[in-house]
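Aim 2 progress update. The chain analyzed this quarter is reproduced below.
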Amino acid sequence: MKDLTHGSIARHILAMAPPIMVGMISIMLCQLVDLYFVSGLGDAAVAGVAAAGNAGFLINALMQVLGVGTVALIAHAVGRKDRPDANLIFNQAIALSVLLGLLTLAMGATLSRPYMHSVAADQATVEAGTIYLLWFMPALALQFATQVIGSALRATGIVRPVMLVQTLAVAINIALAPVLISGWGTGYALGVAGAGLASSIAVAIGVLILLAYFRKVERYVAFNAAQWRPQPRHLKRILDVGLPAGGEFAMMFIFMAVVYYVLRDFGAAAQAGFGIGQRVLGLIHMPALAVALAAGPIAGQNFGAGNGARVRDTFVKSALIVTIVMLGFMALAQLKPDLLLGGFSNDQETMEIARLFLRIISFNMVAQGLIFTCSSMFQGLGNTRPVLLSSATRVFTYSLPAILLSTRPGFRIEYVWYLSIAATTFQAALSVWLLRREFRKRLPTVPQHEAAEPVEAEPVTPPARAPA
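Predicted C-alpha cells:
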C-alpha cells in the first residue's frame, strides 16, 4: 500500500500516470490486433468483428460502474486508515464481479445472434460477428475480476503491476492471433473464432498472473470468502458511486451516434475521415487521461483522511499538468497534423477531412483535459452524479443544434466541429463550477481532527467503518 496523504502531490501524479497510460494503450492495441489479423479473411469478417466489438462498449460501461465505485470507496477507507472497510468493499466488489461476469456469459450466449442481426448488413456479417462474440465473451467476463483487482491496487497507490499484466496480455494476443486465425505453424485455421479465442486466452493468462501477484504481494486488502456473500448496503455504496460514471458512457455513445447521423449526407469519406480523426484524438487524449486517473486515488485518500487542502491542491496540480500536455498536442495538431494522421488512409478526400477535423477540434483539448480532471476528482470525492450531469448537458447542447442545423440549406461539415467546441467548452466550465461547489459543500465538513473517527454518512460522503 502506498500512502498518498503525504509527500509531493505532483510527484505522486507523475509516478502513477505513465503506467496507467501504458495500460490504456495496451487495451487499445488489443482491440486493434483482432481487426488487423482478421482483415485477410474478407470484408464480411472485418465488418462482423468491428460490429461485434461495439457490444463490448456496453460491457465496458458495467466495468466502469464497478471500477469507479471500488477505487473511490477503498481510497476513502485507506485515507481513514480503516482497513476492515477497505477489505469489505474489495470482497463485495469481487462478488459483484463474479455475478457480472456470469451475466455477461449468459447474455453472450443468448443475445449475440439477435444483436448481430440488428446491426449487420448481410448474413455473412451476422455469422462472422456471432462466432467472434461467442469466443470473445469469456475475455469480457474475466475482465470484471481484473477491473476490481486493478481498482483496489490503484486505490492503494499501486499501478505498475496492472500495466505489466495488460502489456503481457497484449503480447500473448498478438502471438496467438495469427496462429489461431490463419493457422500459422499448425495448418488449422479457426478464422474469426480464432480471433475471439486468442483474446480470451490472453485475458485468462493475465488474470491468473494478476491473481498470483495480488495474493503474494498485496497486504492491505485481501481475499476473504466469508465476505463474498452479497451485502445489499455495501453493494449500494459501490453502485451509488459507480452507476453515474457508467451512465457517462451512455452519454458518450449518444454523442458519437449524433455525430455519425449528421455526417451521413456528406458521404462515406466524411464518416471515414471523422473515424480516423477520432481514433487519433483518442490516442492524443491518453496522457491527459492518465494524469487525471492518477489524481483520483490521491484525492480519494486525502478526502478519507479529512485533508481538504491536499484535495484542492491535487486538482490544481493535475489540472496544470493536463493543460500543459494538451497545449503541446494542440500545437502539434495545428502545425503538423500529418505527423499524427500519417498511414491511416490513402484516400485523399478522407485524409483532407481528417486534417480539417483535427485542426478544428484540437481547440477542444484544454477543455477536454479539464473535463477529465474534474471527472476524476468527483470520483475521488465519491460523488459522480455531477459527472453524469455535465456529460448529459454536453449531449443536449450539441445534439439538438447539430440535428437542427443539418436540415438547413448550406450546412457545412465544419459546423459539426464548431458545435463540438462550443459544447465541450460549456461542459468544461460547468464541470469546474460543479467541482468548486462540491469543494465548498464537502471539504469543510471533514475536519482533520475528526478523520480518525468514521461516522455514518450518505453515499456521497466518506463511508462509515463497516463490520468485517
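Residues 43-79 form the longest helix (37 residues). The CA atoms of residues 135 and 197 lie 5 Å apart. These observations will guide the mutagenesis experiments scheduled for the next reporting period.
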